[in-house]
Design a protein that fits this description.
Length: 239
């Protein structure tokens, strides 16, 4: 008889401490905190998978483009080979420079030294602007990961503090300090902290890794812009 009663009690305790029970039995404020953290975690993972996928693809496409770029005889031949629809930042920079050169050639026949110098400066500015625009797109949603990584633990901690306050209030009202009264409220409260850490840790790790990848790609963009500008300058001053 005692064993059966003990078994029933254990089952009730187990049910009370399941994840769903912790959520549904929690205070409204704690529930809001938990839902916010779940949303932050899900959205963070969406960004993480999307960013890693796009960056890996970007590095591959950029490496292929660089091979074509450095093996091509002239920029004009490469431009015809690639078409007119850029698929990644390096191509966007390349096409912006080539379209600017073609536009200038159509509108003027002046080819003195001062003109060539100004033309090179304008082309370089155009390439830099396009490069910065592309890098801005790459950095999109990175602030969200940084925010989740830095604030999620504190949001979870707020839920924990609020839950513990409610637990102590319940103890005072019931005038019962037994573990059966205290434990559920504390468990609900600590659940919020756990979710905060679950949301924050992957966000921080992913942010650092993605930030490193974006930094490396920005260096690639900068180097490509400089090298292409050297090639363009040589062609312009030869004419």
């Amino acid at each position: 008889m005692d064993n059966s009663v003990e078994k029933v009690v254990l089952e009730e305790v187990t049910n009370n401490f399941s994840i769903f029970s912790l959520f549904f039995d929690a205070d409204v404020i704690v529930k809001i905190v938990i839902l916010m953290l779940i949303f932050a975690s899900v959205w963070s993972w969406t960004i993480i998978f999307s960013k890693f996928s796009s960056l890996n693809s970007l590095f591959k496409d950029s490496n292929d483009f660089e091979e074509n770029f450095y093996s091509s005889d002239t920029l004009q031949k490469l431009s015809k080979k690639l078409g007119s629809h850029p698929t990644h930042p390096l191509e966007s920079i390349f096409f912006s420079a080539m379209s600017y050169i073609d536009k200038i050639k159509l509108t003027t026949s002046n080819k003195n030294y001062e003109f060539k110098k100004n033309l090179c400066e304008r082309i370089e500015k155009e390439m830099v602007i396009v490069g910065e625009r592309e890098l801005t797109i790459l950095n999109r949603n990175m602030n969200f990961l940084a925010s989740v990584g830095s604030t999620a633990p504190f949001v979870g901690l707020f839920g924990t503090v609020w839950g513990i306050m409610n637990s102590f209030t319940a103890i005072g009202l019931s005038q019962n300090t037994s573990l059966a009264v205290v434990a559920p409220g504390i468990a609900e409260a600590l659940f919020a902290t756990a979710l905060g850490l679950i949301a924050a840790i992957p966000a921080v790790l992913a942010y650092n890794k993605l930030n490193d990848k974006i930094y490396n790609f920005s260096n690639k963009v900068e180097i490509f812009t400089t090298e292409m500008m050297i090639i363009i300058s040589k062609e312009i001053y030869k004419e």
